[in-house]
Amino acid sequence: MGDYNVVHVMPWGGAYAFYFFTIGISAALFFLSSMSWFRAEYAPLRRGTAYVSFVLLLLSAALLIGDLAQPARFFYILLVHNLNFGSPLAWGTLNLVLFAFVSVAYIVAVHKNHEAGGKALAIVGSLLAVSLPIYTGYDLTVHQNRPVWNTPLIPVLFVALSFVSGAAVAYLLVRGDAVLSKVLRSMMLWGTGGIAAMLVSMMGTTWYGGVGSELTFMLMTEGGLGFVFVGLGMVIGTLLPIALMLLPQHRPQMVAAAAVLLLVGGFALRYSILIGGQIVQTYF
Question: Who's near 156: CB < 8 A, 6+ residues apart?
Fold first, then answer.
């Protein structure tokens, strides 16, 4: 009888973690830019965040297309009759394309300072922007046999990660504005607190979720992946920024350092959740 080996690979590689990271920040920055049409304190964010959002959107599209074995397939799925509307990926593709068109029109409105068009595009674009981290979360949570992924918390967690990361980038862009810096600091602080609570809940249910879930918990909290998830994601990228922002004398330098750490933690959490949900299947 012939011998054979079955090699189990992770279908979702690390490039998707970069995609989740950049598209989430792009969505959050668009939302913050859109707020400038309705709240005066957000006015300094209008142009800078809109431009950075669009650059990150282009980078996200390049990451998504480049990860395909045959990049031309991306254009094939743009044909409506080829889409499976029972799949989150189908809705995500439509969402991404529509968001790109709206972003281009929005940048034109921002450049011309066209208030009526800017407000209308801000509303439509914000709805599409919020949907981007939601759909990426659903891409994971619909996988019923993958621990960590298969929880209703994932789409909510991804939205929170997006807004915290976006607020961190925005803070670094407009550190000179005292009023706006205070608003963004509050957004980062409360958002990170919510993320910490969701991580505790998610990992608690993973720990007690059966053999596969318990093994996933062990793999995500030990070794190399444990360093990324616990060390970079939870301690350095979540708890430490909260501590820095809660200091009695939270100087701008401290909050800026917290913003940088939140970006590190935001990517580390996305990466470890993406890899952690697949790693058990590589052993069997």
Answer: 137, 198
Q: Which residues in the chain come in under a pLDDT of 50?
A: 1
Residues 169-200, buried b or exposed e (16+ Cβ, 10 A)?
bbbebbbebeebbebbbebbbebbbbbeebbe
The token pair at 259 is: 């913003």
How does DSSP classify residue 227?
Answer: I
CA separation for the pair 275, 98 (Å, rounded): 29
CA distance 110 to 104: 10
Q: How far apart are CA 25 and CA 163, in angstroms?
A: 7
Tokens of 254: 């401290």
Contact 184, 45 (CB under 8 A): no
The DSSP code sequence of 112-153 is HT-HHHHHHHHHHHHHHHHHHHHHHHHHHHT-TTSTTTSSTH
pLDDT tens digit sequence for 16-39? 899 999 999 999 999 999 999 999
Residue that is written with structure tokens 């350095």 in the block? 236
Beta carbons of 115 and 93 less than 8 angstroms apart: no
Using left for φ > 0, alpha for ψ between -120 and 50, and beta otherwise, residue 223 falls in left
Residue linked to tokens 């301690």: 235
Structure tokens, 122: 């801000």
For the whole model, what pTM was predicted? Answer: 0.90
